[in-house]
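Predict the assembly for these two chains.
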Amino acid sequence: MNPPVATPFFFYLLAATMIIGGILVITRKNAVHSAMALITALLAQAGLYLMLYAPFVAGVQIILYAGGIMVLFLFVIMLISIERAEKERQFNKQWLVGIAAAAALGGLFIAVYTTNTKGRPLFPEGRVSFGETLNTQQIAGLLFDRQTGQYMFAFEIASLLLLVAIIGAVVMSKKRI
Amino acid sequence: MLHITTLHYLVLGAALFLLGVIGVLTRRNVVIVLMSIELILNAVNLNLVAFSRYWQGLHGPGALHGQVFAIFVITDAAAEAAVGLGILIAFFRNKETVNVDEVNLLKW
């Protein structure tokens, strides 16, 4: 029985980093600032994955999200002119309706998360107390192994999806479309 | 301090999801709309990994289905970002703007 990997303090620290990062993403005028806030939030999320004993997903998060996708975003921000977009109105005309719809969704979340069924909450407190055991090997077993790999076919479909995405990206960024 | 449970992660995921929804619905800049979509996908990923942890408690340490799902969602996010940013570049080349509400060709 291993002790918890980190104290609740770190959860609240990382959660606050993520929330503040998310708020900065949707409020900044400059798209580069938004991207930087999003990178901060993604790195904090990698920390939360580590707290959930998911080191492989945390590594993928840092390498692929913070390292790959966000660099792609920054490249595109450099390609388009952001100076003009900064001077314009940042929110569209339907922003009030949008916030109302999001508030309705938030009310739905609160209603679901506070629901009790037969005196018990809908999501029980999962207090899991075993340490990390060969996380990466077990994920690879689910993805690749001939006996235990239930997700082998989905994995191949994912490679097909990436191929289609590559072709789509190349076609979309052609000179004349 | 209290023990951190699955519900803590779910509430954090819901908050991030809402931030992403607000960003998608209210911002004009396409790049920031795409980043808000990334926020939404990450909120879902956080929920998946938290549920995977909960599921491990029920079915042993080998039950990592949530983490596998999270990896698939990350794959989808990469594909979506590549295609979305390609569309964005084509869009900017044609219309010289990055505002979503100026795309109204299909609107009546």
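Residues 55-79 of chain A form the longest helix (25 residues). Chain A has two domains: 1-83, 134-177.
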